[in-house]
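fold-stage: in
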Amino acid sequence: MRYDNVAMFDLLIPKLIRMTTKVGDMIMSLYENELNIKIKSNKTPFTIADKNAHKLIVKTLSKLTPNTPILSEESEIIEFSERSRWYEYWIIDPLDGTRDFLKQTDEFCICIAYIKQHKPIFGMIYAPPRKTHYYTTDANKVFKQQKNIIQPLNVHPNHSPLRIVIGHWSSHNKQLKDHLKKYSAYKVSQLGSALKFCAIAEGKYDYYPKFGPCSEWDTAAGVCILQNAGGSVVNQNEKPLSYNTKDDLTSPIFFASNKP
């Protein structure tokens, strides 16, 4: 099937919702099982849930957009010499928050984004434990869909005190601790995976500073969702994040907030 640039993602959204729901059901079927865990070279865990989710998503996307490259966290290494020729592509994290999945925190998700000219132009995040989808549209709007209830999302003005959200494994990061000294009145909460972007988009939090390591598939969908909800994600130079511009796929230090 081919799609033109007009309403491309609006046409794909129902299919992507069905796909991610199916993948999420598979992930949840393994949720409380004893899984064989492997540790990847970047010291992150890998399970059969990651592997199976990757296969299902890639299979579906390959059918929906057969001429579009797909970059997944679980893909074989694709050299930059090849990637640099991509004008547009899918980037996915089949199971973002594997450590949260293993610790059964319910704070993990499926991340799917579409990159064009180094920028995410579509994002979808699905949280299987909550059966909740977050996604952008061709009209640059953001929606949350849960149990067939669909609601638009927009960021909330700053709470008082400022509500800051970080990951479960970030609280001891020295750069983060030093950064937070800039603020006099704030409350820090912890939340796993890319759901932090969604939580700001729906007004629960105001700010998410990220100093620890993460990759482009960890951020692309969340960045697109938050930006379309009226927020922003910038690097240390206050520039938007750019994708597929270098050999490695590590994301820079960034600051996600409810401010445009």
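fold-stage: in (second)
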Amino acid sequence: MTTYTSTKEFEGATFVRASFKGATLRFSDVSGVSMRGVDVDGLDIDSHDLFFGSLFVNGVDVVPLVDAELNRQFPGRELQKAQTPEGLREGWLAVQSAWQETVQGTPPALVNTQVAEEWSLSQTLRHLILATDAWLGGGILRKEQPFHEIGLIFTGAGEMGFDMSIFRVEPPPYEEILTVRAERQRQVTDFLATATADLLAEERENPWGGGDWHPSVGDCVRVILEEEWAHLRYIRRDLARIG
């Protein structure tokens, strides 16, 4: 099958009686797309940014419905939006408990298994190490170079000019990943243990650059929680496909 990469040739296009059966769209912009009279049986949409906009199906915005269902499936997920130190601490405990269940329940033979080119469990944990480094180490604590060498950065970071020499090329042993991951979890736990409402309200810089958004300390914590819940959902989804 033909692969279209980094193309804008379909922007504003109209497709009539066309077949996209079995097609895959990855890291693509489909905002504002209108589909009328279409067969959507088995259509599978997975978007981390879903909750920042709207998605209409037969005139109904389904985003609030999806959000509520995910909160039901993942108790404590709703606290990723908490505004108080107590709420954020409770939300952190909930997501760490859920992660502990997943990590301990995954057979060793599956920790490096990838499904449909998604990250494996070991890769996901490395990315969460990086997310904690970025938003706690870089964003909140303002460390000049907060990243651990085994962190796994998002696709395309090198093309965006990010210094990839920080990170180790060879995949680390799973035991090392668990050790560093536990250290980062303790760092967040220790920070939240003494966080106050005044501290959460303090302004910080976006650790990924750009001057259009100046997150508060609380915003940085909420990004960490969002990353934790989102990637927990991804890995449970993929492990279920294997099982």
